[in-house]
Amino acid sequence: MNPRRKKRLTLAVTLIAGVAAVTSLLLYALNSNLNLFYTPYEITHGKNDTGVLPEVGQRIRVGGMVTMGSMNRDPDSLYVEFAVHDSAGGSVVVTYDDLLPDLFREGQGIVAQGVLVESGKLAATEVLAKHDENYMPPEVAEAMGQKHEKPTYSQKALEEK
C-alpha cells in the first residue's frame, strides 16, 4: 500500500473512532440525566407498551391527582408527605421538603420530579401544580375586560334570556 494512502486510511479510522467515542459519551451523559414521565400505575406495574419498571434510585417524573385526605405535614418543618393516584388505580407516596406551589391542594393534579427511593415512594425535588383549562391570568382577564370570577345573573336577567 502506498504510504500516502496508508496515512489517509489511518486518519479516517482515527476520525471515525473519535466520533464514535464522543457520541457514546454524549449518549451516556444524556441517559443519566433523563427524566422519564410515569403515572402512578406505571410505577407499580410497568409502562403500558414495554412493561419496563423504573429502578430504585432513578430520576423520574410522576403525574396524577393528590389523593384526598392523604396529606401529612410536619408541624416543625416544611416536610410534607402525600399520595398521588391516577384513573387506572395506581398510587404513589410522594415526600417533599420545600414550599409547595400556591395552587397545590388535595384533589388537584400535580407533577412531581424526584428520585424513586423505593417501589411506590418518590422523594420529590420539585412539585408543580396544574391548573384547569379555564384558568386565565388576571392581567389577561383585565386586558380583555372580563371579570376573573363566575358570572352571577339576577332573576330579571335570567327572565330576559
Question: Topology of this structure?
Answer:
Blueprint: H1 3-32, E1 36-38, H2 40-45, E2 59-66, E3 72-73, E4 79-85, E5 91-97, E6 109-118, E7 121-129, H3 138-144, H4 155-160
Parallel strand pairs: 1-2, 5-7
Antiparallel strand pairs: 2-4, 2-6, 3-4, 4-5, 6-7
Structure overview:
The protein is of the alpha+beta class and 161 residues long. The chain has two domains: 1-34; 36-129, Nucleic acid-binding proteins (OB fold (Dihydrolipoamide Acetyltransferase, E2P), Beta Barrel), CATH 2.40.50. It has four helices and seven strands; from the N terminus they run αβαββββββαα. The chain has helices spanning 3-32, 40-45, 138-144, 155-160, and strands at residues 36-38, 59-66, 72-73, 79-85, 91-97, 109-118, 121-129. Strands 2-4-5-7-6 form a five-stranded mixed barrel. It starts with a helix and ends with a helix. 14% of the residues are buried. Residues 146-154 have low confidence and may be disordered.
C-alpha Rg (nearest Å): 26 Å
Structural class, from helix and strand content?
A: alpha+beta
Number of strands: 7
- What is the straight-line distance between the termini? 94 Å
Strand order of the largest sheet: 2-4-5-7-6
What is the string of SSEs from the N terminus onward? HEHEEEEEEHH
Shape: elongated
Residue fraction in strands: 25-35%
The CATH class name of the largest domain reads Mainly Beta
* Number of continuous helical runs: 4
**Low-confidence runs of at least 5 consecutive residues:** 146-154
The CATH architecture of the largest domain can be given as: Beta Barrel
CATH level-four homologous superfamily name of the largest domain:
Nucleic acid-binding proteins
